[in-house]
Design a protein that fits this description.
The chain is mainly beta. It contains one helix and eleven strands. The strands form two sheets. Strands 2, 4, 5, 6, 9, 10 and 11 form a seven-stranded mixed β-sheet that branches. The chain has a four-stranded antiparallel β-sheet with strand order 1-3-8-7. It is globular. The model has no long low-confidence stretch (mean pLDDT 93).
Length: 124
């Protein structure tokens, strides 16, 4: 059963914008927290933004001020608005959900559900 489906990736030039979407099954969407991760070739998967059921947002230092995580509860959808994109933002972006209360939002092992990923490529 597919629980998380991402979309919205693509190729842009440096300075451009993209908005990623992640549609979740209702059970997964109501979990304590959701997040966006990314993984560049040859690198470990890293958390870029997270949000919990209280609406608290968390960001990696490298994306603060450029990426914004948000939700549309009516659509069971998580978003990641990405502005001022740079070549170093090039990666596969993954939606994650179903973490434990009190865990570290940026840790891969905290999440039990993952999407298939959507590719973001930023050219200079």
């Amino acid at each position: 059963e597919v629980q998380l489906v991402e979309s919205g990736g693509g190729s842009v030039q440096a300075g451009g914008s993209l908005k990623l979407s992640c549609v979740a099954s209702e059970y997964i969407y109501r979990s304590y927290c959701m997040a966006w991760f990314r993984q560049a070739p040859g690198k470990e998967r890293e958390g870029v933004a997270g949000i919990d059921s209280d609406g608290n947002e968390r960001y990696a230092d490298s994306v603060k001020g450029r990426l914004t995580i948000s939700q549309d509860n009516a659509k069971n959808t998580l978003y990641l608005q990405m502005n001022s994109l740079q070549p170093e933002d090039t990666a596969m972006y993954y939606c994650a959900a179903d973490c434990q209360y009190g865990g570290s939002w940026y840790e891969v092992y905290e999440y039990n559900a993952w999407g298939q990923g959507t590719q973001v490529t930023v050219s200079s």
